[in-house]
Design a protein that fits this description.
This protein has 154 residues and is mainly beta. Helices cover 0% and strands 27% of the residues. An 8-stranded parallel β-sheet has the order 1-3-6-9-12-15-18-20, with no helix packed on it. The termini are far apart.
């Protein structure tokens, strides 16, 4: 705290009562939203209707846009792009120019780098230190994940 934060389009971009943070040179714009203990920094941009929640981290010129969702303890960094309806979750780490789009889901302890691409309805979990191209023809799709779950009754 007591530091200048990054750029926002308005108060709707950041959860008021959470510990999320947008660093000085980062931006959360349009209808994008961050919450929880999420961090956006180092020239990263979250835009359109994208969401970053939990303890997720987006930095180093990464961009999350359209309707993409980054959550849990996932890290998106180093010029990576996540867009469409892609979901990055769990402890996944994407770096080195990786691209994830469409309805692809990357989770577990997956590490993607070296300009890897993941798209279609691909689902990747627990692939360690992997680079390559993954699409709907390689991995079976899994059921959709509700990024706005109903509150639990307890």
């Amino acid at each position: 705290k007591d530091q200048d934060g990054g750029f926002v389009s308005g108060p709707h971009n950041i959860a008021a009562n959470d510990d999320c943070w947008i660093a000085y040179n980062a931006a959360v714009i349009g209808n994008a939203h961050i919450s929880g203990k999420a961090f956006v920094g180092d020239s990263a941009v979250i835009k359109d209707n994208a969401k970053v929640t939990g303890r997720a981290r987006v930095d180093s010129s990464a961009c999350v846009y359209e309707n993409a969702f980054v959550t849990d303890s996932a890290i998106v960094t180093d010029n990576t792009r996540v867009y469409g309806k892609a979901i990055i979750r769990d402890n996944a780490k994407l770096f080195d120019g990786t691209r994830v789009w469409d309805k692809a889901i990357v989770g577990g302890y997956t590490r993607l780098y070296g300009y890897s691409t993941v798209h279609g309805q691909a689902y990747l979990a627990d692939l360690y230190h992997t680079q390559g191209k993954y699409d709907k023809d390689i991995y079976e799709p899994i059921p959709a994940v509700d990024i706005n779950p109903a509150p639990k009754p307890w």
